[in-house]
Amino acid sequence: MSNREVVVLSVGGVRFVTRASTLQHFPESRLARMLNDDDREFKLVNGEFFVDRDGTLFSYIMDFLRTLQVSLPTDFSDYQRLQREAEFYGLYPLADLLSQEHLLKPRLEILEVRFSLQEMQAFFRIFGSCSTTVETLAEQITVFTGQQSGQSWNSPFPSQKPLVPLPLERPSHHDLVFQCGTDYSAGDQFVARYVSIKPDNRKLINGANVLGLLLGTLLKDGFRLISTRTVSNEEKVECYSFERMKRPAGLTV
């Protein structure tokens, strides 16, 4: 039987087809010994190996044998049962990893957007528990500035004068700050700040429009809005809280 290149297993009635070399990744396991008719738990019936175990959980066993990584769905919860199955098949490296659930469970990622509207300007502060997400947002968001003549908050388009990109404020690795809108500088001159958020190509000056685009971008990126509250009535600061389940990287044996 050890000469077989393709092996068919029926695990609890669920059929799996794989290479013999895949089952032999761990030579001391029962699956490797099965190929030599060296385990009574596995019955050879019509050319297929049958074992009376959980077929659904065995799909994760097969994924581990094929990739040598543990990568489970975000909603997976049967760590103890899967560990028991790994021990049954003699896959002790997998069983050891499954005993450390905290390494495999998805982590909750929190992100908070604070928005303040003051006269003709809007102020934004984004805080995220994952610095990588904040870094990605900093690359997506660009603020453009320029002096404009006789323009106001509701000007739909910037003037023909070239706009200069501004670096975002980064108080820490976990947050970023920016603003949009217009402010008087001298006479009838305005300092105007427009915000662009990739992949959208528009340059927006209205704070409400920028807020809508930012929240929409986060929702498309897999975040879920969990609460909206007013932090300060006097300063009109609104806070939007988001969460996302972040799947850990697959652990390699």
Automatic annotation (TrEMBL):
<dbReference type="InterPro" id="IPR000210">
    <property type="entry name" value="BTB/POZ_dom"/>
</dbReference>
<keyword id="KW-0813">Transport</keyword>
<dbReference type="Pfam" id="PF02214">
    <property type="entry name" value="BTB_2"/>
</dbReference>
<dbReference type="GO" id="GO:0051260">
    <property type="term" value="P:protein homooligomerization"/>
</dbReference>
<feature type="domain" description="BTB">
    <location>
        <begin position="5"/>
        <end position="106"/>
    </location>
</feature>
<keyword id="KW-0407">Ion channel</keyword>
<protein>
    <submittedName>
        <fullName>Putative potassium channel regulatory protein</fullName>
    </submittedName>
</protein>
<dbReference type="GO" id="GO:0034220">
    <property type="term" value="P:monoatomic ion transmembrane transport"/>
</dbReference>
<keyword id="KW-0406">Ion transport</keyword>
<dbReference type="InterPro" id="IPR003131">
    <property type="entry name" value="T1-type_BTB"/>
</dbReference>
<dbReference type="GO" id="GO:0005783">
    <property type="term" value="C:endoplasmic reticulum"/>
</dbReference>
<dbReference type="InterPro" id="IPR011333">
    <property type="entry name" value="SKP1/BTB/POZ_sf"/>
</dbReference>
